[in-house]
Amino acid sequence: MTTETKGSPVLQYIAALTGTLAIVTDGMHYGWSSPSVVQLKDNKTCTLCIDESEGSTLAVMPLIGAVAGSLTAATIVDIFGRKRTILATAVPFFVAWMMVAFAQNIIVLYVARFIAGIADGVTFTVVPMYIGEISDPNVRGMLGSSCSVTWIAGFLLINVIGSYFSIKTTALVSSIVPGVLFVTFLWMPESPYYLLMRDQPRAARQSMERLKRTKDVNEDLNRIRTAMQAEEKSHGGRFLDLFRVKSNRKAVFIIGGLRGFQQLAGTTAIAFYTHEIFQTAGDDISAHYAVMIYYSVQLILTMVSSSIVDRAGRRPLLLISMAGSALALFIEGTYFYILNETSVDISSFSIVAVVGLIGFVIIFSLGMQSIPVCMLGELFPTNVKAFALCLADVYFSVMATVASKYLQITKVEYGLHVSFYGFTVCSLLGLVFIYLYVPETKGKTLEDIQKRLKGEMVECNGKTAEEEKISLKA
User: Which of 1, 180, 340, 350 is found 20 to 30 A from 237 (Cα to Cα)?
Assistant: First the structure.
């Protein structure tokens, strides 16, 4: 059983909190389309008016920019380090908000959203990596899940601000967040994994001592160094090693399935069109208030998931989350089917649409919202982690774009019931995938996780991997 040096994880919490401010502003950029596109489509009040197609393009533009950002991050993160790369994201995030604030035409908004997407690609490549490398196993699940918590916080924040202020004022207020990110994260330590990889053992020791608040870090440094030397000896750390090495292939397959089904269940697509979905439902509750309730519930439940993931485990939460999401999406689809395709008067039941969507976000946030991002920082060895997270973010962008365009096309051409029934089917397929292929990583060091992916016999809770596998089947 691999042991971990005891100490205090206080600085790990602070580093994760300040680092994820990059994800807060990223979530604000993504969520900006929900309150703002509605304003831009209002011909009575807007000064820069857009149509349905332009609104859809604005919504997904960050996903396109994220591809370029992810590729950039994979190139620079092992050169400049995790800390400096995260700090650098504050610049494009700030520039993008300034462009949104003073945009006079749709092209400027496209470019601003694309720049924000580039910063997003860097952020979601580097921040999960950084948190995974600085965290002790007993808090890594919670800190890794904080990426999703803060992303949802960004969505909620921009919807609150955007519902009460103009697009210009909203952008100017939002530009404060990347400034706070730079000022606070500047004082955080670099990842010890990166420092050892760059052959800086003294700096790595200092970083580890700060993060653990103890001088007794020899065992941890030796464990990390031994694992990294073994990785370098067997594989040099190239992009193709993600597919040449069996354990890496397995990790790519697992993350690909998790992130793919996460998006095909509709979470990001629904986030882009939350206002419009609630308006279409026709409930007495204002769409603005319904959206705030939606994101508040999502934030609270994602926080709950983050707080219990290191005790409940990844697999149980993922299975419960996906099964419940399928049920909620089916109810939502059935409501819109009756509304759009039958003559049944359901005006007195319009609250079902709000309750169904909030039910979806409750159960989805319990596992599928945060755990896939958490596992991004857990499943890959250091020598290919940059390439892996780059690939994962590009893949996320593609899948989120596909799901968003699917929702936009089907709601216009066929009705929202077709959109939600499609998401239901994907959720059921995701449930099967999780049950068959996703491993449990609770309480394991990053080195133990690699041994398990390689099929090596590692003790866990007093049992070898094979014994645990048999007991789980029993």
Answer: 1
DSSP-assigned letters across all residues of 381-420: -HHHHHHHHHHHHHHHHHHHHHHHHHHHHHHHHT-HHHHH
Q: How far apart are CA 377 and CA 10, in angstroms?
A: 20
Burial tier of 184 (Cβ tally within 10 Å: 0-12, 13-18, 19+): middle
Whole-number Å distance between alpha carbons of 98 and 92? 10
- In 235-345, where does DSSP find H-type helix? 241-244, 246-264, 267-272, 274-281, 287-312, 314-341
CA atoms of 113 and 303, how far apart (whole Å): 28
**Distance (Å, whole) CA 445 – CA 232:** 19
Which amino acid is located at 23 in the chain? I
- Return left, alpha or beta for 31; rule: phi > 0 is left, psi -120 to 50 is alpha, else beta: alpha
Three-state SS for 136? coil
DSSP secondary structure string for all residues of 9-25: -HHHHHHHHHHTHHHHH
Other CB atoms within 10 Å distance of the CB of residue 7:
19
- Phi, psi of 432, rounded to the nearest 5 degrees: -65, -45
- How confident is the chain (474 residues) per 10-residue block, as mean pLDDT? 62 93 93 79 67 76 87 87 95 96 90 94 90 86 84 90 89 96 95 90 92 86 81 69 89 94 88 69 63 82 84 91 94 88 78 82 87 85 82 85 87 88 96 94 84 70 44 35
Residue 236, amino acid: G
Give the SS3 label for residue 463.
strand
Structure tokens of 230? Answer: 């073994």
Q: Which amino acid is at 33?
A: S
**Structure-token match 């419940």, residue found:** 324
The DSSP code sequence of 198-257 is TT-HHHHHHHHHHHHT-S--HHHHHHHHHHHHHHHHH----TTHHHHSHHHHHHHHHHHH
pLDDT of residue 468: 42
